[in-house]
Amino acid sequence: MDNRIIGLFIVQIMLITAISFALFIEGSSGSFASFFSVPSMVLVYGFGGGLTYMRVHLLKDGELGAELKKNLILAGWIGFMIGLVLLGVAMNGEGGQENVGNGFAASLLTVLYGYISGNIAESFLAKKQILKR
User: Fold this and answer.
1) What span, in angstroms and rounded, lies between the C-alpha atoms of 42 and 20?
2) φ/ψ (deg, to 5) at 92
3) What is the pLDDT at residue 99?
4) Distance between CA 44 and CA 115 in Å, rounded?
5) Which 8-state DSSP code applies to residue 37?
6) What is the number of helices (H) and of strands (E) in the chain?
7) Which stretches of 21-99 are DSSP H helices?
8) Over the Cα atoms of the chain, what is R_g?
9) If 44 and its partner were Cys, which of 25, 66, 113, 117 is the partner (CB 3.0–4.6 Å)?
10) pLDDT tens digits for 64-97?
11) How far apart are CA 94 and CA 105, in angstroms?
12) Given its phi and psi angles, is residue 72 left (phi above 0), alpha (psi -120 to 50 degrees) or beta?
């Protein structure tokens, strides 16, 4: 079996284990659903993938993974800034500062998605470099 597939399973198992430990052993508030947001995923994959697609003609052989990683992480941070803007607007409305914690946590999801998916994409798309002595 390809070492990238095995590594992906290890990453997934460790992420699920860490989240489970925090939720059920440490007693953190929230649930697994707190880590899932369709709008955040659409923003990160759409924006990061779109930027990469626009620049794909400029890439040399073997650079696609690194470029996709960079763009997915950038998309995550842009999503975070969008989330902060929406959080600031929500603070002036009904509920006021009661929604700050939930809104801030939701805005961080895009950064989390960007870093995790960017590193996984780079691992799958990286070309093997032959070292010359």
Assistant:
1) 25
2) -85, -15
3) 66
4) 10
5) -
6) 4, 0
7) 38-55, 64-91
8) 18
9) 113
10) 888 999 999 999 999 999 999 988 887 776 666 6
11) 19
12) alpha
CB 108 within 8 A of CB 43: no
Distance of CA 119 to the CA centre of its chain: 9
Record the tokens describing residue 90, joined without a space. 């929500």
- Which amino acid is located at 33 in the chain? A
Which amino acid type is present at position 58?
A: L
* Residues 112/73, Cβ–Cβ less than 8 Å: no
pTM of the model: 0.83
Distance CA 28, CA 21 (A): 9
Instruction: Let me know: does 114 contact 77? Beta carbons within 8 Å.
Output: yes
In order of 15, 23, 38, 87, 131, the CA distances from 45 in angstroms are 20, 27, 11, 22, 33
C-beta atoms surrounding 81 within 10 Å:
11
Q: Which amino acid makes up residue 92?
A: N
